[in-house]
Amino acid sequence: MTSVSRPLRIALLSYRSKPHSGGQGVYVRHLSRELAAAGHHVEVFSGQPYPELDDGPRLRQVPSLDLYRDEDPFRTPGRGEIRDWADALETVMMWGGAFPEPLTFSIRALRALARRPGDFDVIHDNQGLGYGMLGVPRLGLPMITSIHHPITVDKRLDLAASSLLQRLNKHRWYGFVRMQGRVARRAGPLITVSESSKNDICRDFRVRRDAVHIVPLGVDARLFRPRGEDAGPRVRGRIVTVISADSPLKGLPTLLRAVAKLVTERDVHLMVVGTPSTATRKQAAQLDLADRVTFVSGLPDETYARLLASAEIAVVPSMYEGFSLPAVEHMASGTPLIASRAGALPEVTGDAAVLVTPGDAEELAAALRTLHDGEAERASMAERGLARVGERFAWPAVAAATVALYRKVVNGELVC
Fold first, then answer.
1. What angle do CA 177, 183, 187 make, to 5 degrees?
2. Predicted pLDDT of residue 232
3. Does 111 fall in a domain?
4. pLDDT of residue 360 exceeding 70
5. Across all residues in the chain, what is the average pLDDT?
6. What is the CATH number of the domain that holds 245?
7. Is 113 helix (H, G, I), strand (E, B) or coil?
8. Same domain, 268 and 362
């Protein structure tokens, strides 16, 4: 049994950890940094794309075939790239229209852990939930699993927005969700980020409520903050939104329709941080927004943070969010926020955002109009957002709460 006080040896697993978009890479980077800063030994096991880590934690690469790289998605690997049966399985599943990474990463990660018996006190699986994780307890290693939100929600929204043929293909793609539910019920204690996500996990994955523990996410207040005179004033009429993936879940079509209504009477410009789909570009052209919408992606952290702090209004138009790091980043930047009344967003933002009905472009346009015209309302909203971030969302506090759960798992106090 591990002493309550001594530093822990932690293996943090993440099947993919894209550094600048999506929650997994952000979570891994900041949690691992704060765990290491608190004196713990942290090794991050990740497939591609690999995370950007700060000083302290160590990266252990667990290479996949990287079949979904941005510049060459759904590529067929060369014969010389197939190293073993896990690689062959990954290729065959991709050919069949499935998404194999959570499963094949779990197999490779289990192998890597099995080669190092006795090196870790606790294993933390971040959102993978592959069948290989069920082998971790047989190695004598306590495990805890993060589920930021169940992908069942993404699946429902994506299928609802698809044609019949698209739905047939997407059912295959989302085949891994059934595996994740099975693993969630057997993996032991779970961490999630909000009460809303906990409710969804318990409903969709049929997990007992006492197995799920809430630890909110944090924000790097050193980076995301209001900018002073050196950065210049906020750009008049600038609206910013952040999309980790251009999917129906993120509500970008609704925001584009709202902006199209607003530009007929106000001088505004929308900055979208993310890579647009072909459908999104087509919609922007149809709405005659070519000179009123700019898409940017792959921004360095400092550039990204400055962009958020340069806007007059931020929008999170999602149909669902299990937490929404961008919402907290906007609040930390002192940018007045409009968010959908969906998922965990009301829970995360409290009174620090204007809440609108998801999918309602008219209501969103009205909220944008009100904030655009109301300097005092923008200032009040920004002040409430900054206060809420200071009270609730700090990465050192996230790490401390996570370590408290680790110790309970290691000491046998949390067994599910």
1. 145
2. 67
3. yes
4. yes
5. 93
6. 3.40.50.2000
7. helix
8. yes
Cα–Cα distance list, 192 to 12, 353, 379 (Å): 15, 22, 32
Are residues 213 and 254 located together in one domain of the fold?
no
The average pLDDT across 69-88 equals: 93
For 329-357, the pLDDT digits (tens) are 999 999 999 999 999 999 999 999 999 99
The domain total for the chain is: 2
Distance CA 44, CA 53 (A): 9
Residue 164 lies in a domain: yes
Q: Name the residue range of residue 44's domain.
A: 9-218+395-410
- Note the pLDDT of residue 19: 81
**Strand residues in 127-268 grouped as ranges (E):** 143-146, 190-192, 212-214, 238-242
By CB atoms closer than 10 A (0-12, 13-18, 19+), residue 42 is buried
**pLDDT higher than threshold 60 for residue 296:** yes
Element (H or E) spanning 407, and its range? Answer: helix 395-410
Burial, 149: exposed, middle or buried (Cβ in 10 Å; 0-12, 13-18, 19+)?
buried
What CA–CA distance (Å, rounded) separates 194 from 217?
A: 9
128: which DSSP letter?
A: -
2 occurs within a structural domain = no
Q: Which of 43, 31, 29 is nearest to 400 (CA)?
A: 31
Tens-place pLDDT, residues 202-249: 999 999 999 999 999 999 988 999 987 555 689 999 999 999 778 888
18 pLDDT band, cuts 50/70/90, is: confident
Torsion of CA 304, 307, 308, 309, to 10 degrees: 120
Q: Count how many Cα atoms sit within 13 Å of the Cα of residue 394 in the half-sphere of its side chain.
A: 10
Residue 355's CB is within 10 A of a number of other CB atoms, namely: 18
User: Tokens in use for 404?
Assistant: 């408290």
In this predicted structure, what is the pLDDT of residue 3? 47
Please tell me the distance from the alpha carbon of residue 307 to that of residue 29, in angstroms, as a whole number.
21
Residues 275 and 372 grouped into a single domain: yes
Same domain, 74 and 164: yes
- Compute how many other C-beta atoms are within 10 angstroms of the C-beta atom of residue 351: 12
* Alpha-helical regions (H) of 50-175: 85-95, 101-114, 152-160, 164-173
CA dist., res. 246 & res. 301, Å (int): 20
Q: What is the dihedral of CA 256, 369, 377, 273, to 10 degrees?
A: 20
